[in-house]
Amino acid sequence: MGGSDGTHEFRSGRKLGAADLQLLLLALLAEQPRHGYELIKAIEAHSNGFYVPSPGVIYPSLNYLDEVGYVVAEADGPRKRCVITDLGRAYLEANRLQAETLLAQLAAVGARMESARRAFIATATPPSTPSGERNERGFIAELEDARRAIKRALAALEGSSEADQRRAAALLRKTVDALRGVLDKEDR
């Protein structure tokens, strides 16, 4: 999952490689001891629900971390609570930048997904005006649909590169100029 520049990107399909997940688990355990289920929930919270690792991924990773001495599993009633060891803290510290990058990217992906979800919900309602009739604002259904499509497209640009946002702004300016041309022709 690591890029050639040492960064990590979330791609469709496999969300985290085994080594990345283990490092992420160590970072979360450094905050506080946790059960496996609590680790799943913490990752889900960091990603705003975008990534929820399955128990079938978490528990083997925790077992591996226990085997190499990075965590110790302590009995806590019927469950086991994992605690990071000094060896685990040393490994985490040696890979601190990578761990912080993983946490930041998990949060960024979650924020983008939340933004897209909000945009979709805000614009997903079908037009209440039959084709050709005007709604309470005076728009026909086709124009209202186009307005909503523009809102969805703009919401999808959140967090995109400066270059992409500049291209979108230029396109919107051209569109505004073209709309003014339509209105100018109506005035004649």
Judging by the overall fold, what is the CATH architecture of the largest domain?
Answer: Orthogonal Bundle
Radius of gyration: 24 Å
Termini distance? 60 Å
Give me the secondary-structure category: mainly alpha
Widest beta sheet: strand line-up: 1-3-2
Task: Look at the structure and give the CATH class of the largest domain.
Answer: Mainly Alpha
CATH H-level superfamily of the largest domain: Winged helix-like DNA-binding domain superfamily/Winged helix DNA-binding domain
Main sheet summary = 3 strands, antiparallel
Strand content: 5-15%
Order of helices and strands: HEHHEEHHHH
What would you note in describing this structure?
- There is one protein chain.
- This protein is mainly alpha-helical and 188 residues long.
- The protein folds into two domains: 18-109, Winged helix-like DNA-binding domain superfamily/Winged helix DNA-binding domain (Arc Repressor Mutant, subunit A, Orthogonal Bundle), CATH 1.10.10; 113-187.
- It contains seven helices and three strands.
- Strands 1-3-2 form a three-stranded antiparallel β-sheet.
- It is elongated.
